[in-house]
Design a protein that fits this description.
The protein is an all-alpha fold. The protein is built from four helices and no strands. Helix 2 packs across helix 3. It is elongated, with a radius of gyration of 15 Å.
Amino acid sequence: TDCMSSPKHIQECVRDNLESYLRDLGGEAPDGMYEMLVRLVEKPLLEVVMQQADNNQSRAAQWLGLNRNTLRKKLLDHQLL
């Protein structure tokens, strides 16, 4: 299944991977899943959007619905600048 063909497929891929992650824990309690998942999804999102926007932060911020300063902070957080 192509994970990026539609929002529904993205949701299914995330769900499948989370279920697999929890299974792999073998009954151990997960810790910090929300932050982990946000960071794992945010970095490739920023990388792809910046590439498609020819590294134009204003354009990328508009596409993402973010303030340019917020985008810049996120790029710095992920060491993408």
